[in-house]
């Protein structure tokens, strides 16, 4: 039966007697792999697995090549073995690796050498073809001289001349074709070599890479197999939600696909990891902030400070030096305190009391170059209440607006939404954070089967007999439904808001009257259109203002 051991102490013991510990301990070089990663909004918790063989007594298990961005105070170690074991503590050291020995550098050098040999072979072939071409050219020139001498003697015959011309033409043509093919084959090889050399240059420019090694001290009562889990937090990792919302053909519900885009630049790749995505924010903390007393008083001008003799520069530096020395003297205690392990990620993250944890079903590969990996984390259907909305003053289109209710048990975090009306991609929008059960609006594009036209005409402008002028505009809006079903539509227009008490604005002869008039001047009509039905909304806009003044802001 395996016993699970969890580290709960700092390395005070390791620091207090390092020489005796290392002298009496067995050093175990462990190979580890990343088994699971939980990604938060601005960091990630990485869990590594390693299987080692422990000797009786004290063992120092060394895990190498860990990322520099690892937060030391977040390190946790736990494990289980075939016998009794106790994890005594953890320590870390920074190590510089010679990158010229890394596998990628060797692979680049080998690939460049192989491609260079191919280019050299092509060049050798081209030189051979060039020699053949020179030979054919020499034959052509020699024959031309010979023919010019013998042509007066009736030689060569026409047949012989034809054979000679055919030989020269075919030979030169074949050689030129082969030279062209060789050049065409060589060009992509040279481009690939140039790209590889650039990558190799970049790798060699940073010849020394700083990483961390972690040493886990484990006391074992006998020789045993031990499975060690090491977890730590790293920055430069994040995930962001993205959504697909696909409205059904009947407009009554929609398919919601919840996606996650994950990226990281932590310094280590995450190949085939079990990925979890959390909405928790570890940096915020688990408790509410506390208020400090808020004091107010009368303003007192600053009092001038008397000039004092500061003494020589040596006297000025002495206290500072004393303070620095004191700080260094007390640094050992601070260093020992820094090895105390931070609190684990709160259990409620996994339990969902204050956050949601999504566990991706399939293993995911996430490279350390910032490439975004996309995964589907949830799907479902949500109810939709659809209506049409038009603002003809700004756009001659009628838009399908849907009120969507989040009936999933989790919040929809702020992110980008790709919107589909049935199978047609409509566009993208941005979603604000929506709690479970909350409603939000989405527009599914315009519908060409519902038409709207708006005409605004200036009827008259007349001057008052005493002290006022007025201007009247007639607004006419026509709506027509070409669909085979009823359409519920919200028509939005507006009247101007007077910027002065002497300006009066009123709506006359509205047919029908607006369903709602908002404080910002928005006029709303609720219109029901049967299939093939046409309706008209009309009103007069009357503006009165003092005589001798000119209006600004009117159409």
Which range does the strand content fall in?
35-45%
**Cα distance spanning the termini:** 85 Å
Query: How confident is the prediction overall: mean pLDDT?
Result: 79
Number of separate strands: 26
The number of domains: 3
Low-pLDDT ranges? 4-23, 309-352
Radius of gyration: 41 Å
Number of helices: 7
- Principal-axes geometry comes out as flat
Content-based structural category: alpha+beta
Keywords:
555 residues; alpha+beta; 3 domains; ten-stranded mixed beta sheet; eight-stranded mixed beta sheet; 7 helices; 25% helix; 43% strand
Description of the structure:
With 555 residues, this protein is α+β, with helices and mostly antiparallel strands. It folds into three domains: 1-235 and 333-345, no CATH class; 240-269 and 367-446, no CATH class; 450-546, no CATH class. Helices cover 25% and strands 43% of the residues. Strands 10, 11, 15, 16, 17, 18, 19, 22, 24 and 25 form a ten-stranded mixed beta sheet that branches. Strands 1, 3, 4, 6, 9, 12, 13 and 14 form an eight-stranded mixed beta sheet that branches. Strands 2-5-8-7 form a four-stranded mixed beta sheet. The N and C termini lie far apart (85 Å).
């Amino acid at each position: 039966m395996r016993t699970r051991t969890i580290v709960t102490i700092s390395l005070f013991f390791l620091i207090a007697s390092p020489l005796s510990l290392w002298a009496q301990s067995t050093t175990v070089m462990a190979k580890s792999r990343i088994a699971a990663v939980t990604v938060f909004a601005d960091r990630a918790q990485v869990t590594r697995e390693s299987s080692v063989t422990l000797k009786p007594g004290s063992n120092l298990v060394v895990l190498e090549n860990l990322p520099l961005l690892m937060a030391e105070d977040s390190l946790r170690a736990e494990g289980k073995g075939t016998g009794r074991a106790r994890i005594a503590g953890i320590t870390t050291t920074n190590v510089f690796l010679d990158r010229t020995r890394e596998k990628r550098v060797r692979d680049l050098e080998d690939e460049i050498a192989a491609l260079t040999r191919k280019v050299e072979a092509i060049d050798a072939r081209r030189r051979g073809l060039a020699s053949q071409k020179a030979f054919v050219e020499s034959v052509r020139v020699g024959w031309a001289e010979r023919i010019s001498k013998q042509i007066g003697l009736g030689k060569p015959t026409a047949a012989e001349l034809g054979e000679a011309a055919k030989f020269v033409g075919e030979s030169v043509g074949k050689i030129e074709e082969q030279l062209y093919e060789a050049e065409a084959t060589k060009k992509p090889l040279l481009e690939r070599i140039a790209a590889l050399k650039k990558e190799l240059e970049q790798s060699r420019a940073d010849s020394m890479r700083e990483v961390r090694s972690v040493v886990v001290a484990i006391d074992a009562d006998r020789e045993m197999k031990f499975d060690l889990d090491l977890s730590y937090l790293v920055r430069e990792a994040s995930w962001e939600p993205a959504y697909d919302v696909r409205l059904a053909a009947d407009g009554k519900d929609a398919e919601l696909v919840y996606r996650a885009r994950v990226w990281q630049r932590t310094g280590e790749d995450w190949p085939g990891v079990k990925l979890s995505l959390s909405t928790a924010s570890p940096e915020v903390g688990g408790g509410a902030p506390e208020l400090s007393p808020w004091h107010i008083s009368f303003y007192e001008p600053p009092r001038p400070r008397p000039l004092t003799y500061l003494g020589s520069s040596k006297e000025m530096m002495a206290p500072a030096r004393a303070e620095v020395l004191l700080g260094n003297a007390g640094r050992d205690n601070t260093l020992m305190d820094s090895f105390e392990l931070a609190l684990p990620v709160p259990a409620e993250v996994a339990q969902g009391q204050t956050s949601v944890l999504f566990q991706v079903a399939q293993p995911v590969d996430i490279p350390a170059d910032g490439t975004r990996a996309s995964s589907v984390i949830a799907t479902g259907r949500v109810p939709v209440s659809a209506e049409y909305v038009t603002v003809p003053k700004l756009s001659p289109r009628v838009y399908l607006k849907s009120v969507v209710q989040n009936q999933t048990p989790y919040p929809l975090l702020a992110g980008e939404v790709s919107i589909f009306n049935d199978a047609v991609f409509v566009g993208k929008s941005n979603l604000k954070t929506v709690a479970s059960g909350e409603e939000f609006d989405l527009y599914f594009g315009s519908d060409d089967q519902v038409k709207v036209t708006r005409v605004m005409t200036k009827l008259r402008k007349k001057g008052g007999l005493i002290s006022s002028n007025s201007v009247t505009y007639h607004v006419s809006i026509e709506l027509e439904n070409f669909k085979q079903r009823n359409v519920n539509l919200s028509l939005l227009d507006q009247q101007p808001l007077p910027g002065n008490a002497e300006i009066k604005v009123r709506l006359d002869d509205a047919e029908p009257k607006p369903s709602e008039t908002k404080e910002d001047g928005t006029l709303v009509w609720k219109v029901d259109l049967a299939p093939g039905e046409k309706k008209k909304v009309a009103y007069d806009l009357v503006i009165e203002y003092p005589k001798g003044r000119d209006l600004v802001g009117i159409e």
